[in-house]
């Protein structure tokens, strides 16, 4: 059955998957949601014998119904290849009584690779399907991680170009090195004189510049965004939950139909929403455990039904979760409002106006699948040390937030259900925080000394993504003022 996509903010006619991927965000500011969540049409037993790529096809074909089998399999083959450092793509490691689903074996050693390695191919295929011949130009402002993951995904993908703006003095040295060493003639990385907000504002301005869009169209270009709310990022994230259950079954760690709980370290609410969709497809999942760091807006929301961003923004050791507005939550709000666009629109207007909204008790009842909690900085560091000392397994700070919340959940509920913890980054990506958590004595070492020390400690080879930046030559050294961004774009496109 065909799946069409509605906006969460209007009753406008639903559109096809490829159109939703091309648009990213709806014109009314809403997010695209499937008109129904399709049921898995293979049993877990059948899926248990499949590779990651095969499982990904079985899941994605149900959501992206206007893609042909050949198109979808082509996208999957190009995405999940030797860019990943393991053939299984998302391995499972058992430690401290839980299954860690390692989503960090892609080119930038964090979970965003799972979606950003396939998005470019879905985007190009969508463009061709909709008779768009223009080259797709991705424009991104980044505070660090997403920029590199998008660059790695789009580099050398025919029919695309990618331009990344970052605050010249506002990212870590390793993050900057990762970006400015990015290969690929279709890539451009520019440091701007200003902060992240300046970069973001500049990008938004360029996006909404109608004159520039017209000129670009004449020269055979059009903008698109690799934003985390794109359906083309959400759907690929459902696949690894299905894959992990299938693997646990094939390895005899669970029986057919046995439910598992899932813990997800959460920021924008994209990853855990994908798990929710997996559950709605019929995957035997019990609780969806939403783990926050000290920016605990979601914890408060699950407790009280009030979403309130009016609070101090905390900088933590799990920076990819330092978020006060979880954009993907809107998809869940729309759903628990009974797919009522008007009601959702009202709540989102309250969020952008007063920074707060409160859901009804009836809506709150729709959150029964979820459990929310958070971990302090101290608890996060303590669990890294504990798991290392108990099992020799080293986890990163984001995954540690999930592990700490899982401990709280167990203590509170005594629930013994087997549990998968989404492991969203390699410890090598956040080496300093990880090593400091294990022992204060590491504080005086340089970043690369720490990398080597971690490799010894965890008995894990230094990932290629890190090895590369030790020696890779800088290929991007462009800088500009925020008001010159448009000219930089023109110059790169030759218009
Ligand atoms: C982006 C990110 C998260 C948060 O994922 P969301 O889908 O935004 O909730 C968690 N951990 C890491 C390492 C990330 O990069």
Q: What would you say about this model in short?
A:
The chain is α/β, with parallel strands linked by helices. The protein has helices at 17-23, 44-48, 52-63, 69-79, 112-116, 119-129, 145-154, 173-180, 196-207, 210-219, 231-250, 270-280, 297-304, 329-336, 341-354, 361-365, 377-391, 397-413, 431-438, 447-458, 464-471, 485-493, and strands at residues 5-7, 32-34, 92-95, 98-102, 135-141, 160-167, 187-193, 221-224, 260-265, 285-292, 306-308, 356-358, 370-374, 419-423, 478-481.
Describe, in plain words, how this protein is organized in 3D.
This protein has 495 residues and is α/β, with parallel strands linked by helices. Helices cover 46% and strands 15% of the residues. It has helices at residues 17-23, 44-48, 52-63, 69-79, 112-116, 119-129, 145-154, 173-180, 196-207, 210-219, 231-250, 270-280, 297-304, 329-336, 341-354, 361-365, 377-391, 397-413, 431-438, 447-458, 464-471, 485-493, and strands at residues 5-7, 32-34, 92-95, 98-102, 135-141, 160-167, 187-193, 221-224, 260-265, 285-292, 306-308, 356-358, 370-374, 419-423, 478-481. The chain has a six-stranded mixed sheet, sandwiched between helices. Helix 3 (52-63) packs across helix 4 (69-79), helix 11 (231-250) packs across helix 12 and helix 17 (377-391) packs across helix 18 (397-413). It is globular, with a radius of gyration of 22 Å. The protein starts with a strand and ends with a helix. Bound molecules: pyridoxal-5'-phosphate.
